[in-house]
UniProtKB/TrEMBL annotation, chains A, B:
This is Aspartate--tRNA(Asn) ligase. PANTHER family: ASPARTATE--TRNA LIGASE, CYTOPLASMIC, ASPARTYL-TRNA SYNTHETASE. Belongs to the class-II aminoacyl-tRNA synthetase family. Type 2 subfamily. Coiled coil: none annotated. One of its GO terms (molecular function) is RNA binding. It comes from Candidatus Woesebacteria bacterium RIFOXYD1_FULL_43_18. GO terms for cellular component: aminoacyl-tRNA synthetase multienzyme complex; cytosol.
Length: 437, 437
């Protein structure tokens, strides 16, 4: 008998079918037992006798039986197959499992983070945790869709680099055939080099930061979603990033709305016009709203980000707010200073519900100015030779932006730690297992 | 004036427009000059006077002017805009370029590989080389489309690992906060761990091999396109891989047929039924066709792969042929031995026009057998603890496959070296620039 996907059983009432999946929970009531079986399409209640009682969570099984309509008062409208159940006639165990170290049948796995990660291959199977990565997959799908609509070509760029991408010490060193090499800190320089080739590019790329600190919002290995666009001015860049950001969020709400509901996430507020503020304007609003005077600070701190997002929601009915004109010295060397006030730069961050999920800028596209900017930061242009080559042979006005995949996932589902938003998170304490074990 | 994309000029005959792009070539004929201007949408002939003569290849420019129909005898039906030209009225140079080190206007850049790579940011701008990566982008798009149709969820997996993925010495070591870590040799183990979570997964992932040799078909950093499917038997796995492979190739022919033509690539031959041979059957066919007796060999060598692809084309009108049942000892530890003849395995390679572009197998999904297989290879199960955890908690029958992105790109365009199929190739001699310089 051919396998039937669980989602298709609702169309087969009265028919014999074979399903295959994993056992989520088993409940025995005297001689009768119920098992929830999960496959990639959904979850189904199976009714049976001793055959089912034998089953334990995470066993993989094939079950043949008849699809029956449930009596209306027994229907479960929370799941797609809630109107039917399978009456088991033949149960085949394909693969057994060790005893569960915790209750996988609980609606929420209330585990401390270290346990959640120590048992990562198991905790990921929990429906609520699995939902995080269904949302993540939809975020990336949305990114590609809207970056594609901007006319970007997808590029694949290297992660092994001859020098530290943007300077700084937070870089992983690789023994590369006896030579010193580094894991790229971002796809930044390579995507810029490709603007003269494709004009507009996007990439989904790994980035590595040897952050020697443990925070709730940093990982050592992250996934970035980057765009870089030629012949676009500062306003055009903001239009583009807001188009993609709004697109991503709407796409997730459309495709994975059930997971968002499961996480009690309010409906998204994405107005046609995303509010834009300079950093200085944002600081003034914060002063007015809270009395806290950060108007001399060189950046927004996490509390500022939360407050200005609150303002955007209350005053502009927007979950997004774009902050521009960060101090030139606080941004990377390739950031274009504002010609009207070079102390500040043509840069932006996008805040989503209080967290920065995107960063970017218009870039310095003049070879000489770029060499000067590198030197001013105390770096050696020789370490940027391939990058500089692309400016020597012509580079139009250009800029771009970069989304942090794990960050958006974290914020969208209101997770308390970015580690929960990575299938197998890497930080200074852990590569799958903790080093200290 | 708003910018008009070059491809849209054909709809604006008689109108004033502004275009922006890079100068491909300039040809001066006395007082009149022609420049080919390129943007992301295409290339356009611009006619003008002194303003154009000033321009040099790889200058980035804005040009305002009037779109005119070309006289029919002057039309160029090789390009989309061949029926029109732009009569320049105002030329603005946005960015200048150094003198070209070679003729970027030539139809083919006849450069030695080292030069091609030393000037990578420039050579990529050549239309014929750029085409390679337009094809590559379409390959990945096709992969995602057809992996998606199989019901796979996209996953993002780590590239930093605590141990060498599949054993062997060809692994890059990373200094990870003072601990020893490695760049993953493939996404293999992680995608398997996620089968009990999502049942079917796909990933586009980086893989690293510290190959201490220089060949025309190996890179140190590659992009893999992987699928892994639960509840699928050996025949089902081959159906799936042939579905995806055929889908990718057809997608490229549909989307980038002009690049294939530019590379003189014959039309693809993709029959509904891709021929399948065991390795032993393939060796017998080779013996019969060529007299070369490799029937005792444990693998197909490159010449064998070419010969059996020739057979597939001549006898089955197919550019693809699936070879199965490689010796168990020649494949990785997770490969399922054939229960009917355990010396051979439930493994497969897919050959495309003489080159292996995919490899995979049904997997050992029993915890005890997997531990034994690891030990038999002289490896320590402790180094596979997270991987083995997923088998302890239940794993259905499963298997998968992996395409090499650069390899397919190389073979599809008949490039002589896989380095030409990577934007910024990494090998033992080079990270952007050669180490020996």
């Amino acid at each position: 008998m051919e396998r039937t996907l669980i989602a298709d059983t609702v169309k087969k009432v009265g028919e014999k079918v074979k399903i295959a999946g994993s056992v989520h929970v088993v409940r025995a009531h005297g001689k009768i037992a119920f098992a929830d079986i999960t496959d990639r399409s959904g979850v189904l209640q199976v009714v049976g006798g001793d055959d089912l009682v034998e089953l334990k969570p995470q066993y993989f099984v094939e079950i043949e039986g008849t699809v029956n309509a449930r009596p209306p008062q027994m229907a479960n409208d929370k799941i797609k197959t809630g109107s039917v159940e399978l009456s088991a006639e033949k149960v085949t165990i394909l693969s057994k499992s060790d005893e569960m170290p915790f209750d996988m049948g609980a609606e929420v796995l209330n585990l401390e983070l270290p346990t959640l990660l120590d048992y990562r291959t198991l905790t990921l199977r929990h429906p609520k945790i699995k939902g995080i990565f269904e949302v993540q997959s939809a975020i990336v799908e949305g990114f590609r869709k809207f970056a594609g609509e901007l006319g970007c070509t997808e590029i694949f760029i290297p992660t092994i680099s001859a020098s530290a991408t943007e300077g700084g010490a937070e870089v992983f060193e690789v023994d590369y055939y006896g030579h010193k090499a580094f894991m790229t800190q971002s796809p930044q320089l390579y995507k810029q080099m490709l603007v003269p080739v494709f004009e507009r590019v996007f990439t989904i790329a790994k980035a590595y930061r040897a952050e020697p600190s443990v925070t709730t919002r940093h990982l050592s290995e992250v996934t970035q979603m980057d765009c870089e666009l030629g012949f676009v001015d500062f306003d055009g860049l903001m239009d583009a990033l807001e188009f993609v950001a709004t697109g991503i969020l709407s796409h997730v709400e459309e495709k994975q709305g059930n997971v968002l509901e499961d996480y009690d996430i309010p409906k998204l507020k994405l107005p046609a016009k995303i509010p834009r503020l300079t950093m200085r304007e944002a600081q003034k609003i914060i002063l007015k709203r809270t009395g806290v005077d950060h108007t001399k600070e060189k950046d927004l701190d996490p509390e500022d980000e939360k407050e200005i997002s609150k303002w955007a929601l209350e005053e502009k009915e927007s979950d997004l707010v774009t902050i521009t004109h960060f101090p030139t010295k606080k941004r990377s060397f390739y950031t274009m200073p504002d010609p009207d006030d070079p102390e500040f730069s043509l840069s932006y961050d996008l805040l989503f519900r209080g967290l920065e999920i995107l960063s970017g800028s218009q870039r310095v596209n003049d070879y000489g100015k770029l060499v000067d900017a590198i030197k001013e930061r105390g770096m050696d242009p020789k370490n940027f030779e391939m990058y500089l080559q692309s400016f020597k042979y012509g580079m139009p006005q250009e800029g771009g932006f970069s989304f942090g995949l794990e960050r958006i996932t974290m914020k969208l589902l209101n997770l308390s730690n970015v580690r929960e938003a990575s299938l197998f998170p890497r930080d200074m304490e852990r590569v799958d297992f903790r080093f200290s074990r």
